[in-house]
Write a structure and sequence with these properties.
single chain; about 150 residues; mainly alpha; Four Helix Bundle (Hemerythrin (Met), subunit A); about 70% helix; about 0% strand
Length: about 150
C-alpha cells in the first residue's frame, strides 16, 4: 500500500502552494439562515410569554418545555451561522469599509446567548435588528441591495 501511495504522489505531484480565502466556493454565504433561526427565536419567545404556566397542567408544561428547547436550539443555530459568516466570509477590506463590523457580530452573538438564557422579547427583537444590520452589510459588500424581510 505504501508503495502504491508513493507511486501516485510521484506521478501526480501536488502544487507547492495552495491558497483559499474561505472554506467553500465563493457565493455560498448568506445571512438568511441566521435570520430564519432568529425568527424562530422571536416566535418561540412570544409563545413562551403567552403561555400560562400557572394552570399546572402537564400539557402546558410539555408545551413550554418544547418551546424552550426550540428557542435554545434556534438561538444556537443563529449564533453558529453568524460566526461562520463573520470568520469565513468577511475579510480585511470589509473591515476597512465597516470598521464596527467586529462589534456588530460580537453583539449579535451575545444576543443569541441572551436569547438562550431567558425569554426576553426585547432581546429577541434586538437579535432580529442586529441580523438585519449584518444582512444589509453583507449584501452591500457584494454590491447588491437585497430587501430584508421581517417575520409577520
Amino acid at each position: 500500500m505504501k508503495t502504491l501511495l508513493t507511486q501516485i504522489r510521484n506521478r501526480f505531484p501536488a502544487q507547492d502552494t495552495v491558497s483559499a480565502h474561505c472554506d467553500g466556493p465563493c457565493g455560498v454565504y448568506d445571512p438568511a439562515s441566521a435570520r430564519i433561526a432568529a425568527e424562530a427565536v422571536l416566535s418561540m419567545t412570544k409563545k413562551i410569554l403567552a403561555l400560562d404556566p400557572g394552570d399546572g397542567s402537564h400539557a402546558t408544561a410539555n408545551t413550554l418545555s418544547r418551546y424552550i428547547a426550540i428557542k435554545e436550539e434556534q438561538a444556537h443555530i443563529a449564533k453558529t451561522e453568524l460566526l461562520v459568516l463573520w470568520t469565513d466570509y468577511f475579510k480585511p477590506v470589509h473591515l476597512e469599509a465597516y470598521p464596527d463590523l467586529h462589534d456588530k457580530f460580537w453583539q449579535a452573538a451575545k444576543l443569541c446567548s441572551a436569547a438562550k438564557v431567558g425569554a426576553n422579547l426585547e432581546k429577541a427583537e434586538a437579535l432580529m435588528a442586529a441580523i438585519q444590520d449584518i444582512h444589509n452589510i453583507f449584501w452591500a459588500t457584494k454590491g447588491r441591495d437585497v430587501t430584508y424581510y421581517t417575520a409577520s
